[in-house]
Amino acid sequence: MRKEDLFPDMAPADPAQRIRGSATRIRSLRTQVGHDGLTPAAARTLIDELTSVLEEVARALDRNQT
């Protein structure tokens, strides 16, 4: 399921910057780990960040191959 682009007139973020930002947010989730693991909200955030970054990497690879 893809998110709708709420700002289609804005240029997309630089893929490398987007990946770095997601890596920072993923690292910050470590502070939310309790004795039972991540909170449900943190788990959703982790999945969202990983998914969006993998999509960004795939798009960047596609651009480089063409």
Shape: elongated
What is the alpha-carbon Rg in Å? 14 Å
Integer average pLDDT: 76
Unreliable segments (pLDDT under 50, ≥5 consecutive)?
A: none
- Portion in helices: 55-70%
The tally of beta strands, per DSSP, is: 0
Order of helices and strands: HH
* Structural class by helix and strand composition: mainly alpha
- Beta-strand portion reads under 5%
First-to-last CA distance: 25 Å
Can you describe what's shown?
It is elongated and about 45 Å long. The model has no long low-confidence stretch (mean pLDDT 76). Helices cover 61% and strands 0% of the residues. 0% of the residues are buried. With 66 residues, the protein is mostly helical. It is built from two helices and no strands.
Fill in the keyword field for this structure:
single chain, 66 residues, mainly alpha, 2 helices, elongated
In short:
This protein has 66 residues and is mainly α. The chain is built from two helices and no strands. α1 (15-28) runs antiparallel to α2.
Sequence-ordered SSE layout with sheet pairings:
Blueprint: H1 15-28, H2 40-65
